Every structure is written in structure tokens, then in C-alpha cells.
């Protein structure tokens, strides 16, 4: 289906009309954060679900019960999603684990007052694009991506779900000085998951011994997480997400864009990237 049928523009970015309803966006805007909330923030396809496995395991000290028994969208709910209001987050004990795909400047007033902890994950945008292209083929609530080059232009113009990757990443990087925000990349997690888990645990002030870190990292390896029915989206009806077209936990690697983009697509991507990121000082894992 086309954008106009599936999406609504909210504060300049596309959201899914059926999932990000006016009521759920109002709920997001009025959400009362607590200082000890922990929020996973990502541009879609950057490793959100992976973090929804890692962070609960860190907070449980490695006890697998939360990730074995609670489906990801209830375990670390998206604040902007329609069903979240019914989860009674107000009643949840601290620290609450939350997720959002919104840009920094779109966060509600209470976020800036209370400054809860944020872990922001970046991923090479060419891999984000590749993952997104396949995801759009499987998910009926997203637009039909059409031919790859056409979708690539939309992606680079920010005419996709949750807007421009460039605006998203820049918005959260500009908040980099904030002590309550930790930045980590998908590539770092692939390179050394144990080290990444240890760093996140430290940021979250959750002391973990070596054994617990090893256990969490092993549990969160792609091949192991893929078996977890509470995390691999196997409970999502096929009408919404047809995983025979593309599995949700699809490849879980760095650099798959090399198998996906034509040389012309990659060259165009690089040129746009260079221009849009020229004022960004940060060194990324893929630079
Ligand atoms: P691919 O499509 O490249 O495989 P999100 O959760 O933000 O939508 O991101 C989905 C991407 O994260 C998918 O990328 C998915 O396979 C990858 N992913 C999920 N769990 C992972 C894990 N344990 N290890 C590595 N990658 C993972």
C-alpha cells in the first residue's frame, strides 16, 4: 500500500496510522518519566529488539525469566505504540524499561525535566537501509518498498517511517554531553558483546560479575536469541508480518549492504551521507 493509506505525519515524520494513533501519541506526550527509567532509543532497524533482550537481562542480573516469559513489546514497551497505554506503566515498579523510536527533539516535556537514562544505538545506515528494505517486504503495516533504488531515495530523503536517519542520529548525538545518555553502536555489540554488556551494566549502575556478563552475552547471540519465541516476533500474526518473506531476525551481521546495494546505489548513498554528515564530528564504528 501507499504512504497516504498507511501513514500519518506526526511532527514532520511518518508514523503508522493504525499503531501510532492520536490517543497513543497524546499518551506519549503526557508520559511522566521517572529519573530511574531506562529508555532504549533507536532509529528502526538499528538493533532495538536486541537491546530489548540485553537490557532486561542486565537488570535481572542474568536471570532469563523476564525474556523467557514476557513478550518484547510488553517487556520494554514502545512509548508511542497504541497498545502501550493499556500496560499501566504507571503501576510498574522502578526501574521501568521503555523504548522509543522518536528523535531527541520530539521527546515529551517530562523527559527534559527528569532526565531518565537513555541508551542510544546507532548502526551503519547502509545496513539499516538493507534491513529496512527486507522488513518492508514482510510487514503489511508498512508501505510496499517498491524497487530498491526508489526505496533508497525515499530513505535518504527521510520519507520513511520515523523520518530521516540523519536527523534522528544528529538529534541524539547533539545531546551527547548529557550524562544520562549512553551511545553504543550495533557494530560494537557485534564486535564484542561481552564488553558491550559490561559497559551497559556499568552505565545502568548494575554491578555484574564476569560469569553473569558471559551468560547474558551468550543468551543474546543472534543464533540463541532467534530461538526465543518471546523475542523473534513469531507471535505476531502472519497477516501483519509474513516471516516467510523475510525473517525478523534476518541475518544479524555487519556489512550486509554489500550484498544488497548496487555500486550505483552505494555511490549515491555515500555522496548523500557525506553531504548530510559534513558538520558531524563524531567518529562512527563504520567510518
Ligand atoms: P538484519 O535485518 O540486518 O538481520 P530492530 O530491532 O531495530 O528492528 O533491528 C532489527 C535488526 O537487528 C535485524 O537486522 C535483526 O536481525 C538484528 N538483530 C536482532 N537481534 C540480533 C542479535 N541478537 N544479534 C545481531 N543482530 C540482531
Automatic annotation (TrEMBL):
Gene Ontology biological process terms, A to Z: catecholamine metabolic process; xenobiotic metabolic process
Signal sequence range: none
EC main group: transferase
EC identifiers of the protein: 2.8.2.-
Identification of the protein by name: Sulfotransferase
A Gene Ontology cellular-component term: cytoplasm
Residues annotated as domain Sulfotransferase: 35-280
Subcellular location: Cytoplasm
Amino acid at each position: 500500500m501507499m504512504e497516504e493509506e498507511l501513514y500519518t505525519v506526526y511532527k514532520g515524520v511518518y508514523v503508522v496510522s493504525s499503531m501510532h494513533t492520536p490517543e497513543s501519541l497524546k499518551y506519549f506526550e503526557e508520559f511522566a518519566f521517572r529519573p530511574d527509567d531506562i529508555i532504549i532509543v533507536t532509529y528502526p532497524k538499528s538493533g532495538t529488539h536486541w537491546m530489548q533482550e540485553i537490557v532486561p537481562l542486565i537488570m535481572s542480573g542474568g536471570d532469563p525469566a523476564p525474556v523467557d516469559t514476557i513478550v518484547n513489546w510488553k517487556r520494554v514497551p514502545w512509548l508511542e505504540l497504541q497498545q502501550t497505554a493499556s500496560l499501566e506503566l504507571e503501576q510498574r515498579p522502578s526501574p521501568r524499561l521503555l523504548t522509543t523510536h522518536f528523535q531527541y527533539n520530539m521527546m515529551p516535556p517530562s523527559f527534559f525535566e527528569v532526565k531518565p537514562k537513555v541508551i542510544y544505538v546507532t548502526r551503519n545506515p547502509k545496513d539499516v537501509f538493507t534491513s529496512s528494505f527486507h522488513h518492508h517486504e514482510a510487514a503489511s503495516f508498512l508501505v510496499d518498498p517498491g524497487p530498491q533504488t526508489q526505496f533508497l531515495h525515499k530513505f535518504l530523503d527521510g520519507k520513511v517511517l520515523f523520518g530521516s536517519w540523519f536527523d534522528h542520529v544528529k538529534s541524539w548525538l547533539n545531546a551527547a554531553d548529557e550524562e544520562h545518555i549512553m551511545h553504543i553502536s550495533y557494530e560494537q555489540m557485534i564486535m564484542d558483546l561481552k564488553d558491550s554488556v559490561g559497559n551497559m551494566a556499568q552505565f545502568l549502575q548494575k554491578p555484574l560479575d564476569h560469569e553473569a556478563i558471559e551468560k547474558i552475552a551468550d543468551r543474546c547471540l543472534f543464533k540463541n536469541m532467534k530461538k526465543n519465541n518471546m523475542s523473534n516476533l513469531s507471535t505476531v500474526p502472519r497477516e501483519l508480518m509474513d516471516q516467510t518473506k523475510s525473517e525478523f531476525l534476518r541475518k544479524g551481521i555487519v556489512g550486509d549492504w554489500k550484498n544488497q546495494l548496487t555500486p550505483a546505489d552505494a555511490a549515491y548513498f555515500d555522496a548523500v551521507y557525506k553531504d548530510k554528515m559534513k558538520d558531524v564530528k563524531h567518529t562512527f564504528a563504520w567510518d
